[in-house]
UniProtKB/TrEMBL annotation:
UniProt main location, coarse: cytoplasm
Family note: Belongs to the pyrroline-5-carboxylate reductase family.
Superkingdom of origin organism: Bacteria
PANTHER family linked: PYRROLINE-5-CARBOXYLATE REDUCTASE, PYRROLINE-5-CARBOXYLATE REDUCTASE 3
SUPFAM superfamilies to which the protein is assigned, alphabetical: 6-phosphogluconate dehydrogenase C-terminal domain-like (SSF48179), NAD(P)-binding Rossmann-fold domains (SSF51735)
Species in which this protein is naturally found: Bisbaumannia pacifica
Keyword set includes Protein biosynthesis: no
Documented EC number(s): 1.5.1.2
Designated name of the protein: Pyrroline-5-carboxylate reductase
Key words, A-Z: Amino-acid biosynthesis, Cytoplasm, NADP, Oxidoreductase, Proline biosynthesis
InterPro entries assigned: 6-PGluconate_DH-like_C_sf (IPR008927), NAD(P)-bd_dom_sf (IPR036291), P5C_Rdtase_cat_N (IPR028939), P5CR_dimer (IPR029036), Pyrroline-COOH_reductase (IPR000304)
Domain (Pyrroline-5-carboxylate reductase dimerisation): residue spans on this chain: 163-267
Length: 273
């Protein structure tokens, strides 16, 4: 029988994960999602056929896995209110919150709990997510496998041995979709500037990104070689790549990802005390 999974919070990230799980064949009736507002839950019930609940305490009463998917800023209060119910059941805790440490969450929920911290991303909604996972010492092998199975239903899973590496995961894949969306916007706008209709520029930009990612995943060549293969000597791509390099794209990416990881650490300091 499928494990009962309760999502505390039914926003962008939670719906991306349970939507992807259901798409991958996970039984919707084994999934519960909560929100303070039934108005928010009603369309989710209708669309996915999941169970919903406005009372977090009730929602965790029969859960094998509790996925914490509210904003980090309210996590402490949400955990405090569920503490007794969690201690009565001791489910596996999986948190997707940026910046909140496993120890902190365990303490907020009353202690002695198996906690997995997960940094997923929103492409989970289309089965193409990428999640970094870290387990505290109370997590059993069976619970690791359970979490791997849940998250693999929505994409790639990478375990990290040190919790601090989740900051790097956040900087690369957790926040990463937004970097690519920014690049898509810029490429579409550039296409329009060069005379293409906007819809056509968008289709070409997205298909090119999709094709490049698929090709890089399937090829035995590294991205640098694949890039070189597009750059005919003296040709058009070479000019564009030289323009990116002259504008120090690599430094821009380095600075943005460092800022992202630094914010994850800052949030841990601000919220985790
Ligand atoms: N978005 C992303 O790409 C990623 C997000 N994350 C993490 O996921 C978590 C959620 O983010 P995201 O989904 O973007 O945020 P959302 O705001 O979309 O979702 C949070 C949801 O929690 C609900 N909520 C508020 N209070 C409670 C409560 N007491 N009990 C249950 N639910 C409640 C909110 O309802 P209402 O709107 O009615 O207040 C909202 O629907 C964050 O911790 C974030 O760090 C991690 C990786 C990627
Ligand atoms: O921006 C954020 O804080 C969350 C965490 C990673 C992606 N979105």
């Amino acid at each position: 029988m499928a494990s009962q999974v309760t999502f505390i919070g039914a926003g962008n990230m939670a719906s991306a994960i349970f939507g992807g799980m259901i798409e991958g064949g996970y039984p919707a009736t084994a999934i519960t999602a909560t929100s303070p507002s039934d108005e928010h839950l009603a369309p989710l019930r209708q669309r996915y056929g999941i169970r919903t609940e406005t009372d977090n305490t009730k929602a965790v009463a029969n859960a094998d896995v509790v996925v914490l998917a509210v904003k980090p800023q309210i996590m402490r209060d949400v955990c405090a209110a569920m503490r007794d119910a969690i201690q009565a059941r001791k489910p596996l805790i999986v948190s997707v919150a940026a910046g909140l440490g496993a120890d902190t969450l365990e303490t907020w929920l009353g202690g002695e709990l198996a906690v997995i911290r997960c940094m997923p991303n929103t492409p989970s909604l289309v089965g193409a997510g990428a999640s970094g996972l870290y387990a505290n010492s109370r997590v059993s092998d069976a619970q690791r496998q359970l979490a791997t199975g849940l998250l693999e239903a929505v994409g790639l899973v990478e375990w990290v041995d040190e919790e601090s590496l989740l900051e790097a995961v956040t900087a690369i894949s957790g926040s990463g979709p937004a970097y690519f969306f920014l690049f898509f916007e810029a490429l579409e706008a550039a296409g329009v500037r060069l005379g293409l209709p906007a819809a056509s520029a968008r289709r070409l930009a997205l298909q090119t990104a999709y094709g490049a990612a698929r090709m890089a995943q399937q090829s035995d060549k590294d991205p640098a070689t694949l890039k070189q293969n597009v750059m005919s000597p003296g040709g058009t791509t070479e000019r564009a790549i030289h323009s990116f390099e002259a504008a120090e794209l690599r430094r821009i990416v380095e600075e943005a990802t460092e800022a992202c990881a630094a914010r994850a650490r800052e949030m841990a300091r601000e919220l985790g005390q």
